[in-house]
Amino acid sequence: MNTPITIQGWPLVEVCFNGPANEQEVQVWLDAMDALFEKNQPFGLLTRTSEHSDFSDAGRKAMGLWFKQSREKIGQLCVGVARIAPAEDAIERLAGAKMQAAMPCPIYASVDGDEARIWVQQKLAESRT
User: Fold this and answer.
1) Residue 54 dihedral angles phi and psi, to the nearest 5°
2) Nearest 5°: CA angle at 79, between 82 and 89?
3) Total domain count for the chain?
4) What residues have CB less than 8 Å from 40, skipping those under 6 apart?
5) Enclosing domain of residue 71
6) pLDDT digit string (tens) for 44-61?
7) CA 79 to CA 42: how far, in whole Å?
8) CATH code for the domain of 21
């Protein structure tokens, strides 16, 4: 069985949402995100979401609460979030105007993984200048 959420790398942090995640699995991911904040250094996120990924209601609630509490830290340390969309029709949901307004850092989505990776690498490079 695949781990529902994997996280690896630094300062380009890749998060893959591979399948349905329960509250405990979501919490493990959020704890890993908190550990990124403890480095107190800029980082970029590259996320890939499979068509089968989903959070339980409790997991979704935990993520929402974490986001509210962590919003300021995200804005301070995350240079951008590049999201690899499973399909063209998901781009607006993943990085459209509503998502841009909700995020305290730049966000981008593409079905092309290389394009998304290049975007977040550029954001990291800009943060070092």
Assistant:
1) -165, 155
2) 20
3) 1
4) 77
5) 5-127
6) 999 998 777 778 888 889
7) 6
8) 3.30.750.24
